[in-house]
Amino acid sequence: MKKAMSPATLIERNDSLSTFFTIAKEHFLEEAEAWGVTHRLMVTILIMPFGIALMGVLAALMGKDIYKWFTREDGFAESLQVVFYFVAFILCLLVTRWQWKSGDRLVAILYSGLCVGFFFLTGEELNWGQRIIGWETSPSFAAINKQGETNLHNIYGVGAAFKWVQMLVGAYGAILPLAVLRWGVQERFKNLVSSVIPPLALVPYFIFLFVWRLFRNLFEEPEGFYFVIAEYNEVMELTLAAGLLLFMVYQLRRLKKN
Fold this sequence. Notes:
This protein has helices at 7-35, 39-61, 64-71, 76-102, 105-125, 130-133, 139-144, 158-183, 190-196, 203-218, 226-231, 233-257. By secondary structure, it is an all-alpha fold.
């Protein structure tokens, strides 16, 4: 039989939670100043991923045709991802240049790698121009790509690795900001941490994908719901793309403010 917690333990736990949320609120207000936006806009940023997730649910409830339009290849969600990743790539180039000129070479090098990542994601979503130009996939590549396209993430066996990478990216943006909030960071590392860890307001963008990918990687989807669940991944990827774009906007505004 589970032992009930004592009143003193309950009070202590409630005080800890109250303190945590108080610190989170203060941190949230500080972030609003770093962003240079109003508190109302910060709240909008905070709840936007919930709206994206809800849009996907509503599209599914409106019927298969609407849902396919929303989630299919070159559909609404994927087209927005391409736009978000490309804009994030441009902003990342600007941040990299700014960090290099300011003398923070380590951060600049890290952002150079992030630039490569954004370029890669944009190229993969566009099949490296195949969908725009319309060239034929080579027979050797079509034989190993489950969609017969010119990209890496749909190669047999590679796609599974991408799913775990997605989960790790989601975990990075969901857990580390909360860890910094809980335990803090030494003064000498504050600039580095602010440069590489998403602000608290962007945690929902990453936690959605983390929880979703954890579920998809470890569990089988319920029988009869394969299509709905499999295609909903595009909605979660859109949430991540929006979060990464906003992270770059935050970095650029933070640098300009400093």
